[in-house]
């Protein structure tokens, strides 16, 4: 099992050992596998922004060595969108692995784990990486456990191929971790907002066109153990999936986010005050855990330590106090605007602009004056 420990002050034996590790790593060929979140369309491969951020992190880890990506699809892919283009520094992607089978249609982690294990046994990756999203948090711990290694979660910075920085204490401190055995497999989830998404290509319609763009060197269909998939299919069963169609930007990648808290008092107020403002700003809608638990909005709108981490250009918090768990999910926003009638609310300590006013009067007035 690979273990990690916190780095000290870098003096004496620790620094000498660290330098020796780095020297040894320079001669080792690295190959990272980035597991991409599946798109809702089973035929169109559409790489998400979070996955492209994970690819950027993988490139920082392996430098000019190999980065490959894996996607899961229920059917044969008819088009490709969002594949990172050839990078001037890091080159192109080595492989695009596609695992296609009807048994993968609902993307249960138990079934996807068996695919990842089979692919690793064949290619012996040095790093297995995914975005720290709901998908990645569900899948990668299973992969790490089956491969008998520890996972490094939610990294925000890469120091070397075996040393990373991650937030602790709800984001109030940063810990630098280093692998006790740097030659062992590293399983990592990446905080997408901490890495710029890899620049992507335009949509192409075939594998040949994808290779011609030099985005990837090779596209390979993964050989699946169907009997194993059928066995793992007995572990869980999806009765149905309901997806709410929305024309709004994705919460995790939106440039503007409007979030509501418990101060809105009920779902009707949330819909009447937060939603019109978000419509005017073409913004994604977020919420605190208290608002979600009270039924004001869906779970996938939650921002915070146990929800989504966002870093938009503009974050507007309405009727939320600024609990530490919520701040850990949005404090990296470029501009933070807070509206709360309590001038002592913690949210004002991190806000760039604050308005101590009754939200039921201030927000409708603000919305009415926007074009």
TrEMBL record:
Cofactor: FAD
Cofactor: binding details: Binds 1 FAD per dimer.
UniProt domain Electron transfer flavoprotein alpha/beta-subunit N-terminal: residue ranges: 32-231
Record's keyword annotation contains Transport: yes
Any single GO BP term: fatty acid beta-oxidation using acyl-CoA dehydrogenase
Annotated localization: Mitochondrion matrix
Residues noted as binding FAD in the record, renumbered to the chain: 262, 288-289, 302-306, 319-326, 340
InterPro entries registered for this protein in UniProt: DHS-like_NAD/FAD-binding_dom, ETF_a/b_N, ETF_a/FixB, ETF_alpha_N, ETF_asu_C, Rossmann-like_a/b/a_fold
Taxonomy, superkingdom: Eukaryota
Main location: mitochondrion
One term of GO molecular function: electron transfer activity
Keywords on record: Electron transport, FAD, Flavoprotein, Mitochondrion, Transport
Cellular compartments per GO CC: mitochondrial matrix
PANTHER family reported in the protein's UniProt record: ELECTRON TRANSFER FLAVOPROTEIN ALPHA (PTHR43153), ELECTRON TRANSFER FLAVOPROTEIN SUBUNIT ALPHA, MITOCHONDRIAL (PTHR43153:SF1)
Similarity annotation: Belongs to the ETF alpha-subunit/FixB family.
Function description: The electron transfer flavoprotein serves as a specific electron acceptor for several dehydrogenases, including five acyl-CoA dehydrogenases, glutaryl-CoA and sarcosine dehydrogenase. It transfers the electrons to the main mitochondrial respiratory chain via ETF-ubiquinone oxidoreductase (ETF dehydrogenase).
Binding partners and assembly: Heterodimer of an alpha and a beta subunit.
Record protein name field: Electron transfer flavoprotein subunit alpha
Organism ancestry: Eukaryota, Rhodophyta, Bangiophyceae, Porphyridiales, Porphyridiaceae
